[in-house]
Structure formats: C-alpha cells, structure tokens
Design a protein that fits this description.
Layout: H1 2-25, H2 30-51, H3 63-83, H4 89-96, H5 99-110, H6 117-134, H7 144-173, H8 179-201, H9 207-211, H10 213-240, H11 244-247, H12 249-265, H13 272-287, H14 289-301, H15 304-310
C-alpha cells in the first residue's frame, strides 16, 4: 500500500505543474487560486470525515494544524506561486528539488539523526538529474526580481522541510486524529492565509477569467486531484514512513511534468532530458535505499500461511 500511495503521489504532483501553468496563463491571480484550491479541498475533506464520524471540526481549534498549515501549505505554495511570476518553471523545479536535502540536514540537526552517506549522495544525484532535465530550456534573467524569486522558492522549501518534520510531532501528539483529517485542517489554515494575502495584495480576477474553461479546469484538477487526493496521500505517507521517503516525489515529478507538457501543452524536450530522467531515478533509488529495503524485507519475511493467519483466513 505504501508503494502504491507513493506512486500515485508522484503521478499526481507531477501533473499539477501543468495544471498550475494553465491556470496562471488563464489569468488566475497566484495567491487567490492557490488559496481557493486548498481552502475548498480542506473544507470538503474535513466535512466528509466529520459526516463519517472519523473527525471533528474541533480539530480546527488546535494550534498544531494551524502551524502545519502555515508551514506546509502557506509557506511552500505561496512562495512557489509568487516566484513563478519571475523565474521559469524549470528553475523553480530545480530549486524545489532541494526539499529532500533540506529535510535530511534539518532532521540530522533537530533529531540528531545521522544522515547516511548513501542517502546524501542520492539527494545530490537526484538534484543533478533535475538540473540535466531542465537545463536545455533554462533561461536566466539576472534581475532583482529574478534573484528574489530564487530566494523565495528556497525559503518556501525551508518551510516545506520544517513542516514535513513537524508533521511527525503532530501525529504523535494527536494520535487519536486521523492523518487525513489533520491534512484537511492544515490545508484550510494554509488556504485561508493565502486568500487573506490575496485580499491584501491582488486584484479580484475578472468574471471572464473565472468562467473560462482553462481556469475552471485548472482549479478543479488542483483542488480535487492535487489537494484532496494527492496531499492526503502525501500526509499519510509522512505519518507512516520516514519523512524523507515521500518528499522524493520532487525528483520523480519533473520527468512526469515534462511528459505532460509535451503531450498536452506542446512543450519541446531536448535529448539531455533523457539523461536527466535516468539520473533522477537513480538518485531516488539511492536516497530511498534503506526504506525500500525495509519495506520489501517485510513483504518477503512474512510467510504466506502466516499472512493468512494475520488476516483471519483459514
């Protein structure tokens, strides 16, 4: 189940880059579209779980989901959406791929957990693969806004790394709360914060923009598939595995994003991108070597008759 969820997270998050691009090109204000996406998705998930009596709206009164929302949702996506107005999507992908490295380093400092040489090398190899993937189309415009965009993406990744590690503290502190409910609450807080920021800094989108099929399609896909499904699966993976493991979607998503751009948006891909894809896969395998070994070991060690007993089968 963990490997299936991880594969879905990579696929979903890889295609959200194109969905965001379509929405921005349609004229949707960045903070408004991001805030609406997460607030609606989080509200729908928490309401559904409350109806199923698996969660309560009292969860919103806790400080933990608020802090997680400010870090994981607001800090990460407000930074990314703003920065992509001034840097290319390829450069934003490269900078975003620093997330797993930041998690490893932060984890070693905060939790005093030793970083294995293989994991660190895997992160560096994965980052090199992302560079190879986007380098052919990378065009840098050295300006103050370009520099600010780069810095803002890195700040957002610091928030992402901090929020990912804090998630483990939240799930341990609130063991009775369902991981998906916690994710919904943090999305609501993060989305509300971005809508407030939009109110203070952006003009309302014209009705013609909101009524366009590209804007509607982008918002629906990002809200339902990207946030309600993708982020719920990601939050579940963080709660069930090592925080570094699910974060490596940042290495898998660029090849998926490039393929989606080629097929559906007419974007061109250079031959160097093939080397980037191979390098990214290699880096992901290295950084996840130990977690994958443990997961596969569990599947092999438990004999089939014993599994049937565990499942209550005769």
């Amino acid at each position: 189940m963990i490997l299936i969820a991880y594969s879905l997270v990579c696929l979903i998050f890889g295609t959200t880059f194109l969905a965001i691009k379509i929405g921005v090109d349609a004229g949707l204000p960045p903070f408004f579209s991001a805030g609406l996406r997460f607030l609606v998705a989080g509200s729908a998930i928490l309401a559904w779980m409350a109806i199923k009596r698996k969660a309560s709206f009292k969860l919103l009164l806790r400080k933990e989901p608020a802090l997680t929302g400010l870090l994981l949702t607001f800090g990460t996506f407000a930074s990314l959406y703003w920065a992509e107005q001034h840097v290319s999507s390829g450069l934003a992908a490269v900078l975003s791929a620093t997330g797993p490295i930041m998690i490893l380093l932060l984890q070693s400092v905060v939790h005093r957990k030793r970083v294995s040489d293989v994991s660190l090398i895997g992160c560096l190899v994965g980052l090199a693969g992302v560079l190879l993937l986007v380098l052919p189309s990378l065009k840098l415009n050295m300006s103050l806004l370009w520099l600010a965009g780069c810095i803002v993406v890195l700040i957002g990744e610091c928030a992402y790394a901090t929020g990912t590690l804090y998630t483990r503290t939240v799930t341990a502190r609130l063991p009775e709360a369902h991981p998906i409910a916690l994710n919904a609450a943090q999305m609501m807080y993060g989305g509300a914060a971005m809508l407030l920021l939009s109110l203070l800094t952006e003009s309302p989108p014209p009705s013609a923009v909101l009524a366009s099929k590209d804007a509607i399609g982008s918002l629906l896909y990002l809200t339902v598939v990207g946030s309600m499904i993708g982020h719920s699966l990601y939050y579940w993976l963080v709660a069930k595995t090592d925080p570094v493991f699910p974060s490596t979607w940042l290495y898998i998503s660029p090849p998926i994003a490039v393929g989606a751009g080629m097929l559906f948006y007419g974007e061109k891909v250079a031959l160097m991108s093939a080397a980037g894809v191979a390098t990214i896969i290699l880096g992901t395998m290295l950084v996840n070597a130990e977690p994958l070994k443990q997961l596969l070991g569990r599947a092999v060690i438990v004999p089939l008759p014993h599994r049937r007993k565990l499942n209550g089968e005769d």
